[in-house]
Write a structure and sequence with these properties.
Elements lengths: L12 H16 L2 H4 L15 E7 L2 E6 L3 E5 L9 E4 L2 E6 L2 E4 L8 E21 L4 E20 L1
Antiparallel strand pairs: 1-2, 1-5, 3-8, 4-7, 5-6, 7-8
């Protein structure tokens, strides 16, 4: 007995034109065309903001004004205190990119310490198969939450 595969669908010119006409009719009667809803904007394509790449405690972060980020624990910083980061590696100001060699001269990022927190538990499990050797250790990483106030270029 032969197995019958589903027949292949061929789209001819008339079917394609009918589909396009129905799609255009739906689009013209939609609420976007009537002006009730504004079309979605692609904000991710426009660089109407300023960001910087900063080295903080040996790690590089992309920071923007008003954003919060978690960095490794800064024991010397108290909650509510203001701190400055001078190792600014790159600044993007409305599409104008300034790259430092190795840092951008005169640039700094000011921030405020929000809180000191602990991260989630990280479990470290070691096992050697067929030997009965199993070891489970864990720890909680300590972080400092920082709110970026401004980027000075």
């Amino acid at each position: 007995m032969e197995t019958k595969f589903p027949p292949k669908l061929f789209v001819n010119q008339n079917t394609l034109l009918k589909f396009a006409a129905r799609f255009a009719q739906r689009l013209s009667s939609s609420s976007i065309a009537r002006g009730n809803i504004s079309p979605p904007r692609n904000n991710y394509k426009t660089n109407s903001f300023m960001y910087a790449i900063v080295e903080i405690l040996g790690q590089q972060f992309k920071v923007e004004a008003g954003k919060k980020l978690y960095i490794h624990r800064m024991n010397e910083a108290e909650e509510g205190s203001k701190i400055e980061f001078n190792k600014v590696l790159l600044i993007d100001n409305d599409g104008k990119i300034t790259v430092g060699a190795p840092t951008v001269a005169g640039a700094k990022v000011t921030a405020e310490v929000v809180s000191h927190v602990q991260g989630d538990t990280v479990l470290v499990f070691h096992k050697k198969r067929r030997k009965g050797y199993r070891k489970l250790n864990g720890h909680r990483q300590k972080f400092t939450q920082v709110k970026i106030n401004e980027i000075v270029a």
